[in-house]
Automatic annotation (TrEMBL):
Keyword Acyltransferase: yes
Pfam families: Transferase
Highest taxon, organism lineage: Eukaryota
Similarity section: Belongs to the plant acyltransferase family.
Keywords from the named record: Acyltransferase, Transferase
InterPro entries noted in UniProt: CAT-like_dom_sf
Protein name (record): Benzyl alcohol o-benzoyltransferase
UniProt organism field: Nicotiana attenuata (Coyote tobacco)
Single Gene Ontology MF annotation: acyltransferase activity
């Protein structure tokens, strides 16, 4: 028997789902040591700070034809990932992460696949769990949609044809994201800023300016 879960991003994100599934699994096995969810974060988001935020996000969702969806699996084993990390080393990013190098490879292939189309700036979007990045940080197991978006930009395949450059773009996007929230005088103000910044991403999707959207589940301990 298989059990699946489905939740709305209005109230939770992947980290919250991980906390729920982990606690559920431990309880089912008769265990007692599991993370206790903390619901302060969810209370900060419900209701949204401005009803117009939710309305705009919902009204600008891009509909997709299910017939256009293709599912594929690409396996990057440990040796391949290590080789990519070695090739991606640069002065800007002397120690690239596995997420950065694999994301860069996929991004490079996506740009190459669309090279025949009139190229414009290419953007790669990634979700970032902001819990540990706030000042002070939020509890690891707090429940809520505490995700911001990191944007990596590149002028096109000709200018970003090598792995180190793409990895540098990805790292730069993350480094530019953090101060937007870390420099807030109060953590609550930083939390409230997330939905408004998400509106800009939604508009970019609407204008078809985003070429690729990636999510990494690395570091989420679903199998402990």
């Amino acid at each position: 028997m298989a059990i699946s879960t489905r939740v709305s991003h209005k109230i939770v994100d992947r980290a919250s789902s991980c906390t729920l599934i982990d606690a559920w699994a431990v309880t089912t096995r008769g265990g007692t040591k599991f993370a206790v969810p903390e619901f302060v974060a969810a209370a900060k988001f419900l209701p949204p700070p401005n009803p117009q935020v939710s309305t705009l996000l919902e009204s600008q969702i891009i509909s997709c034809d299910n017939n256009q969806h293709i599912s594929k699996i690409f396996v990057f084993d440990a040796s391949t990932t290590a080789s990519l990390k070695a090739k991606a080393i640069s002065d800007v990013v002397p120690v690239p992460t596995r997420v950065e190098v694999v994301s860069a490879v996929i991004w490079k292939c996506a740009m190459a696949a669309t090279s025949g189309i009139g190229r414009r700036s290419s953007c790669l979007i990634q979700n970032v769990n902001m819990r540990k990045r706030f000042v002070p940080p939020m509890p690891k197991h707090c429940v809520g949609n505490v995700v911001a978006v990191s944007v990596a930009s590149c002028k096109g395949e000709n200018d970003c044809s090598d792995l180190p450059t793409l990895v540098s773009c990805i790292r730069k996007g993350l480094l530019e994201l953090i101060p937007k929230y870390k420099d807030k005088q109060e953590r609550d103000k930083a939390i409230f800023a997330i939905p408004y910044n998400s509106m800009e991403l939604t508009r970019a999707f609407r204008r078809r300016e985003v070429d690729i959207y990636l999510n990494s589940w690395c570091g989420y301990q679903f199998y402990d």
